[in-house]
């Protein structure tokens, strides 16, 4: 059910984006405009029709082509606004809360071999559990 909802929501965003750019919402228009811009195997009329009626979501490479054509960030076409907002809030939180020293530590962590990363993770998890409050 959730997957079906995601397909329908994608179709709604695709339709809105086409209308916003002044295109008629027709499978033939979508097929023509998409295939003019896509460097891979052309998609069929039936394929783009499935996008428009909420039966399918295109793979990432096709999604990028659609987004570029419709002048949208790919994530705006792919995800609903609530997900985008949550991602932006999380990124803002990281930018605000992580200081220069912490960023240096993360850079050093990334460069560690996998076995050492595992140990560091276990130490951090142990400290987090030991100092966890009831509100967490």
Written account of the structure:
This protein is mostly helical and 136 residues long. It folds into two domains: 2-82, 434 Repressor (Amino-terminal Domain); 98-136, no CATH class. 73% of the residues lie in helices and 0% in strands. It contains eight helices and no strands. It has helices at 2-20, 27-37, 45-52, 60-69, 74-78, 81-97, 100-111, 114-130. The longest helix has 19 residues, at 2-20. It starts with a helix and ends in a 6-residue tail after the last helix. Keywords: DNA-binding.
Order of helices and strands: HHHHHHHH
Mean pLDDT: 86
Give the tally of structural domains.
2
The CATH architecture of the largest domain would be Orthogonal Bundle
**What gyration radius follows from the Cα positions, in whole Å?**
22 Å
The first-level CATH class of the largest domain is given as Mainly Alpha
Supply the helix-strand structural class: mainly alpha
Ordered list of secondary-structure elements with their pairings:
Blueprint: H1 2-20, H2 27-37, H3 45-52, H4 60-69, H5 74-78, H6 81-97, H7 100-111, H8 114-130
Short characterization:
The protein is mostly helical.
Search tags:
elongated, 73% helix, mainly alpha, DNA-binding protein, 136 residues, DNA-binding, 434 Repressor (Amino-terminal Domain)
